[in-house]
Design a protein that fits this description.
- With 111 residues, the chain is mainly alpha-helical.
- The longest helix is centred in the C-terminal third of the chain and has 37 residues.
């Protein structure tokens, strides 16, 4: 691997932009209406489950639906919605499990 001569400059610029934008966005987020915050937190909460399951479930579903001759546009939209729904379900399950685990562990290990 040979780094590009301007890599250092690009990394510095990315860090400056990131560490300038994040505090600004955090301040703006405090003044965001509650319903927008909830939507934003849910969207953030489903990204990791979506990332974990999209490739396997997506490919398996697309291949299975192609075999029964469904139009490709319908396949892709359907599979996307399926994975999005599954990710949301995993998000809700994670929240419930965390709540129960925290109440179980917290009741036994309170300081």
């Amino acid at each position: 691997f040979v780094p590009h001569p301007k890599d250092h400059l690009y990394i510095v610029i990315i860090h400056i932009v990131y560490f300038t934008c994040v505090p600004v966005l955090l301040v703006l987020f405090r003044h965001t209406p509650a319903h927008i915050k909830k939507i934003t937190l849910i969207a953030g909460g489903i990204t990791y489950p979506f990332y974990l399951i999209h490739q396997r479930i997506g490919l398996i579903s697309i291949e299975a639906l192609k075999k029964i001759h469904i139009p490709e546009s319908v396949i892709y939209v359907s599979v996307f919605l399926l994975i999005l729904l599954a990710s949301y379900g995993l998000y809700i399950l994670d929240k419930l499990l965390r709540k129960h685990i925290n109440s179980f562990v917290g009741s036994r290990f309170s300081l």
